[in-house]
Design goal:
The protein has helices at residues 3-22, 26-29, 33-55, 58-61, 72-83, 90-93, 101-113, 135-141, 155-165, 205-217, 249-258; strands at 125-129, 147-152, 173-178, 191-197, 219-232, 236-239, 244-248, 263-268, 279-284. The chain is α/β, with parallel strands linked by helices. The protein folds into two domains: 24-69, no CATH class; 87-284, Rossmann fold, CATH 3.40.50.150. The protein is globular and about 70 Å long. It is an enzyme of class 2 (transferase).
């Protein structure tokens, strides 16, 4: 059979079907079950989809696509606006879970011991990122390091730390930085430890990775970066109230590795109520 004959036969078959279906319109099929099913599914699907958008942030529906958050400026603005209403107190820093503060601090002290000392990180200077009023600095870092630098985006927290909360420890603070972490460029080769507690959650994946890359350059020999943060049980979840991202540990580890850092140890904070989100500590350099 020649190609031209084959094409003519296919063309004829196509035309026959076309003529047949030209007679079929909505009037002929609107009473069929398939037509009604199609209409119902389409209507119910969009109603359900709109409901989900209202109830659950889109980043939760697509758990692994949090690398880009629409309206990054709004994402950061909401966080800053949230903390304007947080009191400069231990209760404010712990989000009404002040009863677990001592457990948290003891877990941090024990984890830090693994990486500081002879043959490990030095004890000259540490940086507390997202320091708030200095709860972690006072309870974990000042007893170990000769001097401290502290960073937070809320001026009220830093003022309270210096004037009230830190007491005599305030004399050993070299610098207070009133900065958003995504914009902060730390000095090179300055710190033995960079501590990031409940602040990585307020950065987009891209900004967190880029800050970790900058932080890596600011470490002294054998220095370490420690992240302590809420970790999702699966995927990641965007909290629209305080504008934070709770990531699964695997997602956090992926960001750390893309920043060119090696993970030294990972440990779950024990002793917290099961009702709250798991908290993990990650050491890297």
């Amino acid at each position: 059979m020649s190609d031209s004959t084959s094409i003519m036969e296919f063309s004829g078959t196509h035309q026959a079907f076309r003529n047949r279906w030209a007679k079929t319109d909505d009037e002929m099929c609107k009473h069929s079950m398939s037509f009604h099913l199609h209409k119902t599914l389409r209507k119910e699907f969009f109603a359900s989809y709109l409901y989900l958008l209202e109830q659950i942030p889109l980043v939760k529906l697509y758990a692994l696509t949090c690398e880009y958050i629409k309206g990054e400026k709004q994402f950061y603005y909401r966080a800053q606006n949230f903390y304007k209403d947080v009191p400069p107190s231990e209760e404010g820093m712990m989000g009404d879970f002040v009863e677990i503060s001592d457990i948290d601090l003891e877990g941090s002290r024990q984890f830090l011991k693994k990486f500081v000392g002879p043959g490990k990180a030095g004890t000259k200077c540490a940086l507390d990122c997202g320091c708030g009023i200095g709860r972690v600095s006072k309870g974990v870092l000042f007893p170990v390091f000769e001097s401290m630098e502290m960073l937070d985006m809320m001026e009220e927290f830093i003022l309270h730390a210096h004037e009230c909360y830190l007491g005599d420890y305030a004399d050993r603070v070299e610098s207070y930085y009133l900065y958003n972490l995504q914009e902060f460029i730390p000095p090179r080769k300055k710190y033995d430890v960079i501590w990031m507690q409940w602040v990585a959650c307020h950065l987009t994946d891209k900004d967190l990775m880029e800050f970790l890359m900058r932080a890596k350059e600011s470490l002294r020999p054998n220095g370490v970066i420690i992240i302590k943060d809420n970790m999702a049980r699966q995927g990641c979840k965007l909290d629209p109230i305080d504008s934070s991202i709770i990531r699964h540990l695997d997602i956090m580890n992926g960001i750390i590795q893309r920043a060119g850092l090696n993970i030294l140890d990972v440990e779950k904070q024990e002793g917290f109520p099961e009702a709250i989100v798991p908290v993990w500590m990650i050491a890297m350099r």
